[in-house]
């Protein structure tokens, strides 16, 4: 899909500071700034004060030339060192294999999950000496966890010239969540009100922010750990103690009454180009990410605002790589930044199967100085279900593998096992990517995964309707039934119901507005007389609507009234209209619309047309052979 480009500034260095004016489009559908939710979004910001990459690589000049894949980028033979060898490092190393890039990881676990796909050096990514030793065998360092020793990284960069992406300065900003908030607030990124918690401020914060009150640890917080909520003043002391006390380094956030939790994976290249993946919606259980849905099922303006906030945040940082940006969609439609991770992120796992370039491949491209890839979706929708330990040890292991077993028999599901040594309750041990033509299908498949094994067959085999057949009265079924017969012949799931524009207007509104969310791709609406149903439905749905003029039983007119009513729609509200009573053609038109994105259905339509040709040729041959007097018409 076509990429979208604009120019933004950065606040990360006085050498590159530019005046930036941020405007959100009033209506993405009618603005030059509008975009489709699954497009690759590109923002260009050129950086001129970075050391040329060819001077950073420790490889020989001859080998560099032989394995160069991009002007100014590191050669393919460069060794990528990753601080951390967990599941993110594992998937990063796996993404490096098709590119022929060697990945090494530094992790204290022996073996670490990433060791299945990368060379591992056993050691702590918080140990300065271990980091320095590890860097000696690498051309570039990156992280799969932000809780590293940034002072050691700065020393490595100064003493060895090994490049580090994102920069130690950026990692340092992000790993202290209070400093992170301060940085983004100063950069003009919208965040919830916050204050540092000290003995002197703890009382005034309660008075200023009110309750509920969110308290957070500044460092080493993840998967909901490091957060505590005080519902009233009586719970503040307990909440503070649960976080290790004020001396442990805490801050408070004013409660943000969000309606949706969103996330955007944003890639930043070495020269400042930014490519954003589609906006994702996340759901959490016990403060741990449970599922994701992409594209997020929120209004277009909300997606536009989410992308603008995410891109502004990453544009204010220095360094290349992929960044996970967590956001809150508020009740009034505004978007607030929650926090940023300087690495691949749980909310971006879906990209492995669902996008043209995964977040892991994109991270490698970014840090190596290679062109960033297409981040658009390859399918209609995608979801992700985290595999969490429901219990410790063997019991938890067995439950997790039952879930994987259900994934193997559910269409569109791709399980990923992280290779951890054991299973612990509420810890991530894998995930399942779920793809489908639409979000309704993805949700149905996730539901099948979560169902008990005995219910899997019924929940996963039920097909979601793709075409809706509606009529103003059940008396119209004698006409509209022909559409159902055609759809049945083609094996396309459909639904049939009565929706009256005049007698049940609220039902019509709800049906039209929810149709695309339920997985429908086209609507066939039959109506007689005033025949308002097709047009009113078309005015409230983004789906194609096909109108069928019907002659109501006992009506004094011949259907021309209905035909003229349906075809005379105002500009901007199209309704495809077939001849009076021709529900068969309405169904065939709906099938042709669907077949444009469905090769299997397209083949069925071609076969249907071939059969029509064969039927006509057979009749012609019989007529020619029997003569016009002897020929008997059989329909």
Structure write-up:
Its EC number is 4.1.1.21. Keywords: ATP-binding, Decarboxylase, Lyase, Nucleotide-binding, Purine biosynthesis. This is phosphoribosylaminoimidazole carboxylase. The chain has four domains: 28-60 and 67-176 and 258-368, 2-Layer Sandwich (D-amino Acid Aminotransferase, Chain A, domain 1); 193-254, ATP-grasp fold, A domain (Dna Ligase, domain 1, 2-Layer Sandwich), CATH 3.30.1490; 381-461, ATP-grasp fold, B domain (D-amino Acid Aminotransferase, Chain A, domain 1); 467-595, Rossmann fold (3-Layer(aba) Sandwich), CATH 3.40.50. The two termini are 47 Å apart. The strands form four sheets. Strands 1, 11, 12, 13, 14, 15, 16, 17, 18 and 19 form a ten-stranded antiparallel beta sheet that branches. The chain has a five-stranded parallel beta sheet with strand order 4-3-2-5-6, with helices on both faces. A five-stranded parallel beta sheet has the order 21-20-22-23-24. By secondary structure, it is an alpha/beta fold. Helix 2 crosses helix 11 (359-368). It is 34% helix and 21% strand. It is elongated and about 100 Å long.
